[in-house]
Amino acid sequence: MSAPNTTPTxxxxxxxxxxxxxxxxxxxxxxxxxxxxxxVFELFFRKNPFQGAFxxxxxxxxCLKYIQSFSFSDEDIEYLKSTPALCNCEDGYFEYLRTxxxxxTPTFQVRALKEGTIVFPKIPMVIIEAPxxxxxxxxxxxxxxxxxxxxxxxxAARMVLAAKPFPCIEFGLRRAQGPDGACTASKYAYAAGFSxxxxxxxxxxxxxxxxxxxxxxxxxxxxSLDDVQDLQLLNKKTQATEAFLPKVLGYxxxxxxxxxxxxxxxxxxxFPDTCLCLVDTYDTLQSGLPNFIATAKALDDxxxxxxGIRLDSGDLSALSxxxxxxxxxxxxxxxxxxxxxxxxxxxNDINEETLYQLAERGHGITAFGIGTNLVTCQAQPALxxxxxxxxxxxxxxxxxxxxxxKITIPSxxxxxxxxxxxxxxxxxxxxxxxxxxxxxxxxxTCRHPFKSQKRLICTPTSxxxxxxxxxxxxxxxxxxxxxxxxxxxxxxxxxxxKFPDAIKRYEDPEEYPMMVSITLYKFLHDLWERNAPIKxxx
Amino acid sequence: MSAPNTTPTxxxxxxxxxxxxxxxxxxxxxxxxxxxxxxVFELFFRKNPFQGAFxxxxxxxxCLKYIQSFSFSDEDIEYLKSTPALCNCEDGYFEYLRTxxxxxTPTFQVRALKEGTIVFPKIPMVIIEAPxxxxxxxxxxxxxxxxxxxxxxxxAARMVLAAKPFPCIEFGLRRAQGPDGACTASKYAYAAGFSxxxxxxxxxxxxxxxxxxxxxxxxxxxxSLDDVQDLQLLNKKTQATEAFLPKVLGYxxxxxxxxxxxxxxxxxxxFPDTCLCLVDTYDTLQSGLPNFIATAKALDDxxxxxxGIRLDSGDLSALSxxxxxxxxxxxxxxxxxxxxxxxxxxxNDINEETLYQLAERGHGITAFGIGTNLVTCQAQPALxxxxxxxxxxxxxxxxxxxxxxKITIPSxxxxxxxxxxxxxxxxxxxxxxxxxxxxxxxxxTCRHPFKSQKRLICTPTSxxxxxxxxxxxxxxxxxxxxxxxxxxxxxxxxxxxKFPDAIKRYEDPEEYPMMVSITLYKFLHDLWERNAPIKxxx
Lengths: 538, 538
Prior knowledge:
With about 550 residues, the first copy, chain A, is α/β, with parallel strands linked by helices. The first copy, chain A, is built from 18 helices and 22 strands.
């Protein structure tokens, strides 16, 4: 199977895929020559999604492709000139836009986390060093390109944790927010540990295993056994092609739906090695299950291992337990070993919460098909990423707010992940770029960026710098090095394994410490004080 | 401004953008020759989104483009053959797929609602008549293409109703579910009554007015007045170019942030006719507002009408009222009429609920900027559309369920909207296709499809057939007739105006009646009884 690793070029991802105000404010800068002043921007989020305590960074590939090809076409420029909002701008500005290019800007550099890294609030995922104008023009698009991949990867990883040890299959194409929303969800759900997707196009694009059986419409298209009277199947035991229906009818239970049985028989003959039947079109226990059992016994007689059933409605806990016990009964009473090996897929509106509920109540499910709640991230459909100026002309910048989490941490900085003896991450530690990096064995005092009473002393066994340069002065090498999907998938798993369960758990997860150096703490608070207005009361 | 009306061809929308099970179940049909049997499928939803009582149908353009170009490429076929799920399928099946085409299938027909029609649960939005195999292969993609456009249009229409009489602007690009999610949201939010978008690419693609001012990062890029010392602006009154900063400083209030004032001055000189300032970077009332007022007074002196302010944090009700009263005070005390005409845009996490809360509490806002909650449809991020077989080989089909709303209404049918005297829709009435259509003046008995005690007698003043043929036997004309965006926008408005407020209101909306003919009722219940399994108790 071919496995290319990147999405096809999206015709929507152009320099115009931005907010108008990026273009207007860059104009205001351009008019006074500020657009060439060196600036540093950080892209980060303020709060982990899904009331959780971790986030998985994804979307870097898309960002790099966008950055690499960033430019305004002549047609784009004509459009901009024609809009009422910009029609009075000076021609020189449009000329500036027309010739703007990331690969032609010597001072342009992008640092980023590795795709699939576990990340926490306030830690930059992407750091852009660029002339102010160029850096500003990239903001909205980069936010868009990181937001959904990271969100859906995090959602998927949480679901995989909740479903353990049972695999999860992504079924969301029909309910996703557009074709691109669907394929992006398939890609990053797989990166974060899903086992397969039902989306064939995503399977082809990204080399993801595809999976699926049949739907209700298939069963509805049969109304009697007439259609399957003549079906023949190779009997693996006798190596002769034999009529299949008579064998099934020998095991049939009275009162089940004829059309449904016909549908199962046709499906079994089409896919004798992978026959998985949707059993709830008419009535799961009275019709679907007995019809499947009759079909499966016949497959067994012909030397095939039937695959199992899918439940798509009703009480999934009770129904799956009942189906499982019926399968065990058949296995025990008839010594049909194939019945000890059946899959029970459940797939009706499953989300993280129902996965935990099912685990608590008990169930007989062996795989979960998850659609809407995964791909639309129903529990929280956007990750609130922001893109903030942290340095300008070598001078650190701060964004104040009455809302503490909205205050930015100023300055160009490095972030280190400090590990303990067992290779467990202890703390993420942010220091100013000119500080010397922390070393294993050092006794490092870490401060909470805002709460003066919160401090932590850490003597790490190892230290990892979280960011690396992914695009520098137009180096095309950056793109070639972009990770492939199966590597990212392994990396996410490694990342998840490293972190303690307390951080990954569903209920009341523990906050992972993100701290700053003493120097950065002092610097941040000085700058804050200098910039905050003093209220005067009379 | 150019205004093309359709999205660019999305490379993801191909015949492979489907669930694997569409391909496996079609194979099971193909093996026994069922794939050519005539079938009728309906695409509909079961429940209005957002706890509301109406839905706006959108997405038809995308569906028609997909249908028109539907085909499996050689590369697609190679991929399918290579997958473990399909590698044992017979070659003839792949040949069938390779040559399958909507335009070459004489019996293929699509009927649909007009783009922008108000629609209710169970009413088909799209009706596909096709050979079973082809109809089945279109399912997932059509669902994907209708789901999000209809959802986001409905969400937008509800927000526009909640914000009335103030306009809404779409700001969601950065938080949307991918580039396509963003542009689709921009398009259908505009169709449903939004006034503008901040998304420049969507503006260009669809001819939507673009709107936007500047962001916090812009303000942060200024730290002193040095940058703007030399700024000159044409004084419209004297027709001389004059220094602008001294004029502003003459009106400056002590203690405001220098960098912020510099940012406003630079912005005013860049956009003197449309100067709208974001005032909450440091402190709205102590710094942003007085800095804006000083800038606006200077613009007034130079003969320009300043545009206004944007509030992006804090208590939007109290802050907007305060800003409004300060503007009125300036207007009253200084006779500066421009202050009577200022815009106050609010834009922090606004959703339908906060719009109603603001209206109730009172505010001074004159326009709303809405992002995340609009474009991701946070309140309900998917419309649960389904695609069901309702007829097969001329025989009506039903999908049963223990869950009443999940039962399908069988048979090929027509749907009529019956109107009363004032042109108000009274009831949507579904009848079997061979029934004679209801006529104005007829006394029509309508039945609830499931609840036997619910009946309604209606004597309509006028009758409209809701569906029309949009694709017939490969008629390429269908696409050419596809509606353009501004027409759809007017049509949505007309539709909304027609329906009574009771159906559109936020709290406890009234359910609009969707009823069936006596014949269809009887037919449905007979079929239901025939297909439902009889429980046997011992």
